[in-house]
Design a protein that fits this description.
Elements (H helix, E strand, L loop, with lengths): L5 E8 L2 E8 L2 E5 L1 E4 L11 H6 L5 E4 H6 L3 H6 L3 H5 L5 E4 L2 H6 L2 E5 L4 E4 L6 E4 L1 H11 L3 E3 L11 H22 L6 E6 L5 H12 L5 E4 L8 H11 L9 E3 L5 H8 L5 E4 L1 H7 L2 E4 L2 E4 L19 H4 L3 H10 L2 H28 L2 H14 L8
Parallel strand pairs: 4-14, 5-6, 6-10, 10-11, 11-12, 12-13, 13-14
Antiparallel strand pairs: 1-2, 2-3, 7-8, 8-9, 15-16
Helix pairs in contact: 6-7, 7-8, 8-9, 11-14, 13-14, 14-15
Length: 378
């Protein structure tokens, strides 16, 4: 285990990379999926169960944690790792996206954003400096610059304004981060769906002293083809020696396509949110466990899974729990989904190492398309 933050690429297959991010709190195998622990918890999962799925790192959210319980309180209680009983790496986002999507009565200017909490209407101000201060108080291992994220579609004029403001905020965020041994700060590429703006943002951030770079402002309503086009435009302008993080993505297919285009890190609420609403992600594709045809189905979600929730419980039982609104059903399906995402990442890492990523992606997508009929009884 390293005392410093560093990144190494061990294998490539086309643009795809297999590597490791080294931190004092542990090694992150890439490509990596980070379960989202918005409010210091991956919803419906114990921390040790998250780890058991194969997760090396989880994500926390500045916006939610600053509102409740408060960053200063978390710091007094020993920091976010101790608070949530997760001794492994944590990445915190900057809060910018949630301010734009959740907060009430926002007022944005060059200094930052003043907004009202969606919880109780209390007024708060978030700037690059305050965002970095909060992340320092939380004690996260990877911290994100404060940025402005616009929803797509939007005009190139609006995307350009937000992108250049985010670049100015990137410089202020990097300065406010100062030096934190063993910890890292990432910049965020913006630019909407404009190729010139994405390139301008990526080149400017590559010239700053960030430990890694993220691609933001995607998976916000645009078609997958637009997202992939922006990745193909952006990734060649990101430093090859630093990790690349696609924020808020996504579906299993989004992930395999983005890995093929050179992305190393992902996060998304999809597997946990779906699990709480009766939807399972499997190698057979998506399974709506609330569907009546599962009511007397004794098969598990996937008999080949390493996850007990997916392997050891019948679909009939999971169907009953979901229909009854039982908390255990939410827990089991969430665990099965997070485990599937981690199994997918492990498969991607192995395929890159073996130089057969194209075959792996084709076989994986074929399994999704064929569906759960592959597991039907004789």
């Amino acid at each position: 285990m390293s005392d410093n933050f560093s990144f190494a690429v061990h294998a490539t297959d086309g643009a795809a990379r297999k590597g490791e991010i080294f931190t004092p709190r542990g090694t992150i195998r890439t490509p990596a999926f980070m379960p989202v622990g918005t409010a210091a918890t991956v919803k419906a999962m114990f921390a040790q169960d998250v780890r058991a799925t194969g997760a090396d790192i989880v994500l926390g959210n500045v916006y939610h944690l600053m509102l409740r319980p408060g960053a200063e309180r978390v710091a007094r209680l020993g920091g976010l790792h101790e608070f949530m009983r997760w001794p492994h790496p944590i990445l915190t986002d900057s809060g910018g996206f949630q301010v734009m999507s959740l907060a009430k009565l926002r007022k944005l200017n060059e200094d930052g954003v003043t907004f009202q909490s969606h919880i109780d209407g209390s007024r708060h101000h978030l700037s690059p400096e305050r965002s970095m201060e909060i992340q320092h108080l939380l004690g996260s291992d990877i911290q994100m610059q404060f940025d402005e994220c616009v929803r797509l579609p939007c005009s190139d004029e609006e995307a350009g304004r937000a992108m250049r403001l985010s670049l100015r905020w990137a410089e202020r965020s990097r300065k406010a981060f100062r030096e934190q041994p063993g910890r890292a700060v990432f910049g965020i590429v913006q630019g909407g769906a404009s190729k010139p703006l994405r390139i301008e943002s990526a080149r400017a951030l590559a010239g700053m002293d960030f430990n890694g770079l993220a691609v933001g402002g995607l998976a916000v309503g645009e078609p997958q083809a637009v997202m992939l086009d922006m990745l193909e435009t952006t990734v060649p302008h990101l430093p090859a020696v630093k990790p690349r993080y696609l924020m808020g993505v996504g579906t299993p297919d989004d992930i395999v396509q983005a890995v093929a285009r050179g992305i190393d890190m992902f996060d998304c609420v999809m597997p946990t949110r779906a699990g709480r609403h009766g939807l399972a992600y499997t190698r057979y594709g998506k399974i709506n466990i609330k569907n009546a045809r599962h009511a007397e189905d004794l098969r598990p979600l996937d008999p080949q899974s390493n996850c007990p929730a997916a392997r050891d419980y019948s679909r009939a039982y999971l169907h009953h729990l979901a229909k009854a609104g039982e908390i255990l059903g939410m827990m089991l399906l969430t665990q099965a989904n997070v485990a599937y995402y981690q199994e997918l990442m492990a498969g991607l890492r192995f395929a890159v190492d073996e130089g057969r990523l194209g075959d792996f992606i084709a076989q994986t997508r074929e399994g999704w398309a064929r569906g759960e009929s592959t597991s039907a009884p004789e």
